[in-house]
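Consider one such protein record:
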Amino acid sequence: MSTTHESSPSTSSTSETTPSASLNPLTSHGLHLQVTFLWTKFRNEIAIKGSNGTLTPLYIMHRRPLKPQLRYERVSDTTTTTTTIGTGSINTFSIDSTCTLHAQEIHLKPLKRWKTQYNYLSHALGGIPLSWIANSTLKEWDFVCVNSVTQEPVAKFSVNWWAVKEVGNFYFDGKVREGVRDEIVVTGLTLLYVMTTRMNNPFHLLGAAFARPGKVEEEGMEMRDGGGKMKVA
């Protein structure tokens, strides 16, 4: 991950806590994905990390200057080809973000102006709201994804502040469906790059000041029954 980190208590405060922030580690039999930055190709590779340390490539994340800045591809199991599954956008002023995954839009909405707390409606889990809440130390930046209603943990994305190559790791508690895994990877990595941009972009101070944070369910958005598409009530 080729990003620079500047001191920003407002966006990565160590006081940010969540009821599930103690998920360290998750169950030993859970899915473990490692995010590695490949300097020679200037991209992130997300791979399944086996119990013996072997890495099996699963996704590739590309970054570019123009929107959508982030592009996510799935690596084929049988060939060397890749398939684009989603994108992530970082705004110049607004601290909101938009992802696409399998042709469906996901709105990452801040819960707070000055803290790393975002929520969205999950297509993979039938439209329930999920929240990403961060807890940081001098060494690590932990993004914990929880069910906004029950506060049950869904996954954790642990990022190493000082990483040169190994950006971080996704941890899941037990087995996880492919659709949920795709969504967690896309929203988690997009949020990471949104926050690192916020920490280095003064325009986002204005964006935060004029933001309208809140719960996504308060916007009146709901999922069509069985259709999986979002509509505005």
Observations:
- Residues 32-218 form one domain.
- The chain has one domain: 32-218.
- Residues 2-22, 220-233 have pLDDT under 50 and may be disordered.
- The longest strand covers residues 55-63.
